[in-house]
Amino acid sequence: MIRKHGLNNRHEGEEIVAHVRQHWFIFLKLFIFYIILAILPLVAYYFFQLQVQGLLSGAITGPLLTMAFSVYYLALLVFSLTLWTENYLDIWTLTTHRIINRKQNGLFNRMVAELDLHRVQDVTVEEKGFFSTVLNYGDIYIQSAGEVERFVFHNVPNPYQMAKTIQSLDEKIKNQHPVI
Predict the structure, then answer these.
(1) How far is it, in rounded angstroms, from Cα 155 to Cα 56?
(2) CA 118 remoteness from chain centre
(3) Alpha-carbon distance 11 to 9, whole Å?
(4) Nearest to 78 by CA among 103, 107, 102, 105
(5) Which CATH class is domain 91-176?
(6) S-S: 170 plus which of 2, 5, 120, 141, CB 3.0-4.6 Å?
(7) Which pLDDT belongs to residue 1?
């Protein structure tokens, strides 16, 4: 469970620095896409009303088209709610000792990975495209010496600030516990 000031398996002396989700613009793009998909059947209905008037009022074709539109909207609703769930439950937690990546894949599949900050070797930020540059979001790549060699955080808001925070916490933890 993700709480604002809590963590279920907190280490001794560990403090939460930030919970980070994807940038809001990513969800907005997907929302607009689903709105367009929701409008398409209405346009098709209007087109059929103008071009083929008997098709929608037929004894067989009318109920079949109504059922097809209903199935389409039901599938669209299920896909959009699944997408929203995946986006909302994808979260990265940065603490003073580690980085925790929670990734939701579908409705019933969740992956949690942790990276101790003393294993961080390199932090890279990448902003690609017009919107990511203007709205200040991008990808953060964290090279590590752990089992998972590369952590990737996609579409993070303020990626340069987050990378600086990760690097400063990494330096702090390495200065507190130098490797002999």
Answers:
(1) 44
(2) 26
(3) 6
(4) 107
(5) mainly beta
(6) 120
(7) 47
Q: How far apart are CA 115 and CA 117, in angstroms?
A: 6
- Per domain, the residue ranges of the chain are 28-85, 91-176
The pLDDT tens digits for 12-61 are: 778 889 899 999 999 899 999 999 999 998 898 888 777 777 666 777 87
Question: How far lies 163's CA from each of 22, 72, 81, 124, 153, in Å?
Answer: 15, 43, 31, 7, 11
CB neighbour class for 104 (10 Å; exposed up to 12, middle 13-18, buried from 19)? middle
Handedness of CA 139, 114, 86, 15 (dihedral sign): negative
Tell me the two tokens of residue 74: 């039901």
Rounded distance, CA 99 to CA 92, Å?
Answer: 7
b or e along 142-152 (b: 16 or more beta carbons within 10 Å of the residue's beta carbon)? bebebeeeebe
CA distances from 91 to 12, 75, 88, 138, 152 (A): 22, 26, 8, 15, 12
